[in-house]
C-alpha cells in the first residue's frame, strides 16, 4: 500500500495526472494596452530591470547628463543652475546637477512605473512635456538628445544585466516616453492652449 502512495506522489511530481486543465506556462500572458509598444513579457522585463536603476537613480542620472553634455556641449547653456560647470569633474561634483538629474530620473521612474495605467502615464508625461515650453530657448528636438545618454547610463548601471534583449526593451521604452513628451510639448503650443 505504501508503494502505491509513493508511485502516485512520484507521478504527480512528473506531471502525470495534471491533464485536468492547461498548464500555467501554456496560458498566454495578459494582454497589454494596445497603445503600449511593449508586449506583456517585455513590460515585465522592463519593470524588473528598472528596479536595478531605481536603486541607483542619482548615479544613473548624473552619468546620463555627463554623457549628454559630452555629446551636446551646446545644451549646457540651457541649465541655469549648473551651466558654469564645464569639466566632467565639476559636473560630477555639482549638487545642482545631481538635483536636476534626480528630478529627471524621478520623472522617468514615474513614467516607467505608470506603464500599467496608460491614461495616467499619458497625462503625466504630456504635462512634463508641456512644462518644457516655459524653458527659454528650448526646442522640441532637444528631447531626442537624451536618448543615447539615457541608454548609455542604463547600460553602465545595469552592467552585465544589460543584455541585448534588455537593451531592445529600453530602446522601445525611451522612444515611447520621448514621443509622449513631444506630444505634450506640441499640444501645449497648439493654438488655444495656454503655456
TrEMBL record:
Keywords in alphabetical order: Heme, Iron, Metal-binding, Oxygen transport, Transport
Listed PROSITE patterns: GLOBIN (PS01033)
Gene Ontology MF: a single term: metal ion binding
Residue ranges of domain Globin in the record: 37-186
SUPFAM superfamilies: Globin-like
Family: Belongs to the globin family.
The protein's name: Neuroglobin
Organism whose genome encodes this protein: Papilio xuthus
Amino acid at each position: 500500500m505504501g508503494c502505491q502512495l509513493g508511485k502516485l506522489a512520484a507521478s504527480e511530481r512528473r506531471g502525470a495526472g495534471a491533464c485536468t486543465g492547461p498548464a500555467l506556462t501554456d496560458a498566454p500572458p495578459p494582454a497589454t494596452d494596445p497603445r503600449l509598444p511593449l508586449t506583456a513579457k517585455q513590460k515585465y522585463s522592463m519593470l524588473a530591470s528598472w528596479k536595478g536603476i531605481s536603486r541607483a537613480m542619482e548615479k544613473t542620472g548624473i552619468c546620463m547628463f555627463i554623457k549628454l553634455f559630452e555629446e551636446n556641449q551646446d545644451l549646457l547653456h540651457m541649465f541655469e543652475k549648473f551651466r558654469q560647470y564645464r569639466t566632467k569633474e565639476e559636473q560630477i561634483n555639482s549638487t545642482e546637477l545631481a538635483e536636476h538629474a534626480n528630478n529627471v530620473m524621478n520623472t522617468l521612474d514615474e513614467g516607467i512605473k505608470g506603464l500599467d495605467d496608460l491614461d495616467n502615464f499619458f497625462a503625466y508625461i504630456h504635462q512634463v512635456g508641456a512644462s518644457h515650453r516655459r524653458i527659454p530657448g528650448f526646442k522640441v528636438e532637444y528631447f531626442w538628445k537624451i536618448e543615447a545618454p539615457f541608454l548609455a547610463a542604463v547600460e553602465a548601471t545595469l552592467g552585465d544585466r544589460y543584455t541585448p534583449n534588455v537593451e531592445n526593451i529600453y530602446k522601445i521604452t525611451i522612444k515611447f516616453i520621448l514621443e509622449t513628451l513631444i506630444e505634450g510639448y506640441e499640444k501645449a503650443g497648439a493654438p488655444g492652449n495656454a503655456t
